Amino acid sequence: MSVVLRAPRYAGIGLVWAWRLTFGALFPTTCKYEPSCSEYAIQAVRKHGLLKGSALAGWRLLRCNPWSHGGHDPA
Amino acid sequence: MYLLAAHIPVLSPIFDALEAVMRHVLNWFHGSLGLGWAWSVVATTVVVRIILVPLVIRQLHSMQSLQQHAPEMKRIQQKYKHDKQKQNEELMKFYRENKINPAASCLPMLLQIPVFLSLYYTLRHFATNFLCLTPATRVLIPSGPNKGQLNAACEAIVHHTNLSFLHFVPSIADSTTAHWGGYALLVIYVASQMASGLFMAPTAQRSQRIIFMVMPLVFVFVIARFPAGLVLYWVTTNLWTVGQGLITRRLVQRTPAPTAEKRSSRTPPKEDDGTSENGASPEPIAPKPAPAANARPRQVRRKKSSGRRR
């Protein structure tokens, strides 16, 4: 796939890294899922593109709540 | 520093809504309860943290069940100690099967972001959008030598509003570095952020704990450009985290035995590599006296409320 077509994905991955380096670094929490929510977001965007990947990542974040049980959940 | 996201057309209504909500909340604390503006910020923070308390209690319960299952988990860790990935997966599976909530979840953490953003925008626009709400006073002088200044009527209102915090921060709407009090607040911020980092992740590995110590020192340069009220929010929420951690420790009893497995899995003793793996393990390795030593799996003694009900 050409770099142009992949550009949105890179943007999305960049956003995740921006999060990791700012707020993410301030809140020392470990995720209950494997891979962690941010890693999942990166994988999902890389695999499915920005739109579907973001949707998947959003759904994962919603599942990552105190009432769920976590576990192995790859993108 | 201006957060760019607010200028994206799709997002700006969301930011406007967030700001409006925060404005109402602050107004209520100030108008109805008679708190000063700075204390209204503190009160808002405390309310947010009170809302999150049920999550903390859940967390406490999962710490308890983690402790109960410690021997089985140790077995899994021993079994896959050379394959971190596999070990993680197996542990996660174990959690799921035994309905344990092992770690904190991401969502509660994210819920604090809207609060932070709304406070940021409210404080940034404090004078124009908040204090000078009547049509006569809200207008900014758009251009000319006094560009960006408030008009006289609004200026007067702002001038007569007490935005100070405990007499050492003159205005919570001003940039933190505008006054020495702001620098003092920043020092408190760094200390509280470090402390809360240690409390939020007591079982974290050493390298991670170093990050929590270094990160506030980096972040302080960013936060210095925020309105002082925002730093006040951080300080309050950090101090709450620390207080909560202290109370949690009180509620929780230390139990003697199965403390060392986290450490020992990280740095397995040399003789474990070979033959004596099966039988030798029950001898716990004494943990080093680290600040996190108190925070091993523990037992919740009893909640106060259950006693009162009887």
Descriptive notes:
The complex is a heterodimer of chains A (75) and B (310). Chain A is mostly helical and 75 residues long. Chain A has one domain. Chain A is 65% helix and 5% strand. Chain A is built from 4 helices and 2 strands; from the N terminus they run ααβααβ. Chain A has helices at residues 3-21, 23-26, 37-48, 50-63, and strands at 33-34, 71-72. In chain A, strands 1-2 form a two-stranded parallel ribbon. In chain A, helix 1 packs antiparallel against helix 3 and helix 3 runs antiparallel to helix 4. The longest helix of chain A is centred in the N-terminal third of the chain and has 19 residues, at 3-21. Chain B is mainly alpha-helical and 310 residues long. Chain B has one domain (7-124, 164-263). Helix content of chain B is 60%, strand content 2%. In chain B, helix 2 runs parallel beside helix 11. Chain B is elongated. Mean pLDDT of chain B is 72; it is low at 255-298 and 300-310. Chain A binds chain B through residues 22-23, 25-34, 36-37, 61-62, 64-66, 68-72, and chain B through 55, 58-59, 88-89, 92-93, 95-96, 99-110, 113, 193, 197, 200-201, 204, 208, 211-212, 215-216, 219, 222.
Secondary structure blueprint with pairings:
The complex is a heterodimer of chains A (75) and B (310).
Chain A: H1 3-21, H2 23-26, E1 33-34, H3 37-48, H4 50-63, E2 71-72
Parallel strand pairs in A: 1-2
Helix pairs in contact in A: 1-3, 3-4
Chain B: H1 12-31, H2 37-51, H3 53-68, H4 70-79, H5 84-97, H6 106-124, H7 126-131, H8 152-159, H9 180-200, H10 206-223, H11 228-251, E1 252-254, H12 261-266, H13 277-280, E2 298-300, H14 304-309
Antiparallel strand pairs in B: 1-2
Helix pairs in contact in B: 1-2, 1-6, 2-11, 4-5, 9-10, 9-11
